[in-house]
Amino acid sequence: MPFLYLVVVILVIATIISLVLSFLGILVVGALRLLPLVLILLVAAILLGKVRITVVRGGDRKRNRWLDD
Hints:
By secondary structure, the protein is mainly alpha-helical. It is built from 1 helix and no strands.
């Protein structure tokens, strides 16, 4: 009998893990579906001048860091 309980517990744990992975998969697929819309909005914002992207190469690296310590 203890063997049967162990099998039941393992099946319950496997079911919970499967449900969690399925939920995470739904989230990832939803995010991937929104990606083209986000990219179109970003391009539109750049073209309208609402967002400005600057690329700085060379020079003093410490001064150009985004996050200062």
